[in-house]
Amino acid sequence: MSRLMVAAQVVKDSVSALDVGRMIGLDIDRHGRCACPFHAGRDRNLKLFPGNRGYNCFVCHAAGDVIKFIQGYYKIGFKDSLLWFDGTFHLGLDLGKPIDREQQRTAEKALQMRKRRAEFEEWKERMRFDLALTADEIVRKLEETRDAYRPRRYGEEWDERFCRAVLLLPEARKFADDCMMECMKERKA
Fold it and tell me: pLDDT tens, 146-181?
């Protein structure tokens, strides 16, 4: 990993998009939203995330990490943006010195953890969606069972399978709806 990449990792781990927005004087509300400086919008379309999650504009679709934010805001290069972070937030990045091996290992571990976390979140979303589909399939099967074993005439004895399906359907529908709503919340977030 190069010296610049180690410095970039230190910046991403140390400074959030909210910190950067406050430092450059953006009017940020309590939800982390402000007017987007990239398309000169007046509405609060730019979302600045806490931690190392970066930023996203819902109108011009500008998105990325804090380094990309400063590169776009000041229209400067990668190394100049790292120098800006070092000077502004006093991170102690010495871009002229050789890489500190411990700092490099820490940066590599952080990058590896970020990749693992992203893979886990992706897996979790897939599993949640699969669970919602399975719950929906169970509801469909219960409805088929209810309809197949429904009494056909008045006074006919009720089949045990019909009774079980009728009893389980409300809970199964609620569970399927809850699973689908959870999937929709995850996709919106």
Answer: 999 999 888 889 999 999 999 999 999 999 999 888
Q: What single DSSP character describes residue 50? A: S
Pair 89, 30: CB distance under 8 Å: no
Bridge partner list, 56? 47, 63
| CATH 2.60.40.10 correct for 3-89 | no
Residue 163, SS3 per DSSP: helix
Is-contact 169 146, C-beta < 8 A?
Answer: yes
CB contact at 8 A, 5 and 78: no
33 strand-pairing partners: 47
CA distance 158 to 161: 9
- Rounded to whole angstroms, how far apart are CA atoms 91 and 104? 15
Provide, for the chain, the percentages of residues in helix, strand and coil under a 3-state DSSP scheme, each rounded to the nearest 5.
Answer: 60, 5, 35
* Segment 55-75, tens digit of pLDDT: 999 999 999 999 999 999 999
Query: N- to C-terminal Cα distance for the chain?
Result: 32
Cα Rg, the chain, nearest whole Å: 26
